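Researcher: We plan to redesign the surface later, but first we want a full-length starting point. Tokens attached.
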């Protein structure tokens, strides 16, 4: 009897086997369809300018809104996943993305494009991508790290294929028909979502369906009603609502960690500042190359080169940074990658020949691989894992703000000066200053902590304060992963 029950429980676990690998394949496609999609927007930059008679600043708002919503919609996606599950969120995101791009093909002004392709498609991509990554945590326990690493290759595939497809379709049928086709392609996110069926426990209840009583603030709202009073006092009711709102903000936006944790504070400020210049080459590289006489097809190939190299370099960077020799030092590797990314922009300033731009793309791709592989590993190093989800919520919202305003401000500078070199000057300044700020600040913080610890260690018993390297017990496979983790990829 017990053997039969054990066999039934084992059969009820789909983790790390069977259908889980189909879900992983769907996650790879999702990341290519969502995170990889903004990489092709630079191909349409010049055509959209001519179509709507828009300036560089006005045109750059369209990809800026898309990327900002894609990164900053994490808390909203989290609420959606907790209410309806990952499958629903992915399919809803695919529907929004498709509708957004189909609507974009009928736009009559650049401002309409902000709403359709920017807001609607960006929000749909956010739902599909983040819910798709979340479901991997339910389907994989033992191989979760490998699954996430393999899924991230979808981003690089998207970076490689989207620009090439975009340039081909643009040459053959124009940007409006291309956007219409893109709407149909993005609807495939719904197919990927259909594959991600809810994980079932042995009891038959979905693993990823939350209980209503577990929602933040529920107990706080019900507490006054349980004291026997027919209706709570208005002031008490208002105070209870404020407490519930505070608990929700505490869960999804970790302001307390930002105020108390110096490492998290430095890292969040540094990455937020970095993001203002990080996206600039992706948006302006193609129009810059075209302006300097590079053929349109070859200019679109530049973005594909970045994505193709990312396919191989990003996993290697992730494996290298995971070595124990870099434990506690990943922030310095991250700062070095940001510094290299900033310095590489000077290659474009020196020469705009196609051969030099290829060299630039190779170096930029290597630096981007380091940034993409280390961004969330460093965040895990500076924040306790039980608060990682809420810390990441604030982190993504702040970086989405600078992702939103960075390209339009730089586009305004280009409009005033009529010189695309300022794109790369501005990007270099922001990236290099962010790298120096994070590296030097963490170095000073580390020295301060060492001095503080040294002052507390008694001379007669130094071994008492030695670091304990005994590994903790691994998490049981029967336990579910954190309810929702906002994950973005750079």
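Model: Full-length starting sequence:
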């Amino acid at each position: 009897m017990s053997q039969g029950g054990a066999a039934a429980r084992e059969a009820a676990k789909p983790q790390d086997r069977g259908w889980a690998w189909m879900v992983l394949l769907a996650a790879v496609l999702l990341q290519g369809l969502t995170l990889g999609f903004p990489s092709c927007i630079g191909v349409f930059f010049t055509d959209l300018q001519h179509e709507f008679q828009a300036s560089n600043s006005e045109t750059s708002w369209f990809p800026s809104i898309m990327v900002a919503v894609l990164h900053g919609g994490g808390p909203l996606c989290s609420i959606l996943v907790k209410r309806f599950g990952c499958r629903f969120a992915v399919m809803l995101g695919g529907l929004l993305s498709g509708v957004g791009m189909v609507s974009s093909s009928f736009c009559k002004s650049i401002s309409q494009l902000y709403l359709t392709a920017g807001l609607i498609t960006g929000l749909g991509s956010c739902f599909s991508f983040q819910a798709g990554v979340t479901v991997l945590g339910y389907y994989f326990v033992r191989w979760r790290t490998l699954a996430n690493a393999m899924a991230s290759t979808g981003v690089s595939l998207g970076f490689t294929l989207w620009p090439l497809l975009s340039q081909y379709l643009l040459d053959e049928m124009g940007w409006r028909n291309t956007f219409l086709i893109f709407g149909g392609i993005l609807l495939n996110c719904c197919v990927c979502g259909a594959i991600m069926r809810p994980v079932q426990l042995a009891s038959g209840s979905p693993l990823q369906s939350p209980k209503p009583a577990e929602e933040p603030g529920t107990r706080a709202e019900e507490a006054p009603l349980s004291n026997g009073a027919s209706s709570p006092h208005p002031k008490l009711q208002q105070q209870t609502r404020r407490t519930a709102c505070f608990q929700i903000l505490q869960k999804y936006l970790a302001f307390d960690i930002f105020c108390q944790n110096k490492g998290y504070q430095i890292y969040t400020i540094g990455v937020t500042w970095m993001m203002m210049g990080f996206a600039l080459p992706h948006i302006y590289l193609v129009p810059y190359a075209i302006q300097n006489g590079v053929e349109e097809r070859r200019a679109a190939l530049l973005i594909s080169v970045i994505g193709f190299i990312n396919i191989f370099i990003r996993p290697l960077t992730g494996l290298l940074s995971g070595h124990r020799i870099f434990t506690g030092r990943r922030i310095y590797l991250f700062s070095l990658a940001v510094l290299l990314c900033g310095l590489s922009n000077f290659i474009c300033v020196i020469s705009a020949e196609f051969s030099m731009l290829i060299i630039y793309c190779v170096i930029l791709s290597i630096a981007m691989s380091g940034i993409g592989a280390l961004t969330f590993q460093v965040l895990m190093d500076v924040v306790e894992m039980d608060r990682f989800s809420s810390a990441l919520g604030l982190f993504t919202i702040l970086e989405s703000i600078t992702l939103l305003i960075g390209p339009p401000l730089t586009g305004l500078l280009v409009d005033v000066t009529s010189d695309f070199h300022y794109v790369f000057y501005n990007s270099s300044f922001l990236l290099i200053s962010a790298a120096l700020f994070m590296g030097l600040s963490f170095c000073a913080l580390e020295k301060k902590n060492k001095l503080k610890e040294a002052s507390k260690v008694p001379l007669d018993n130094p071994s008492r304060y030695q670091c304990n390297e005994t590994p903790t017990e691994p998490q049981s496979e029967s336990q579910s992963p954190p309810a929702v983790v906002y994950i973005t990829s750079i």
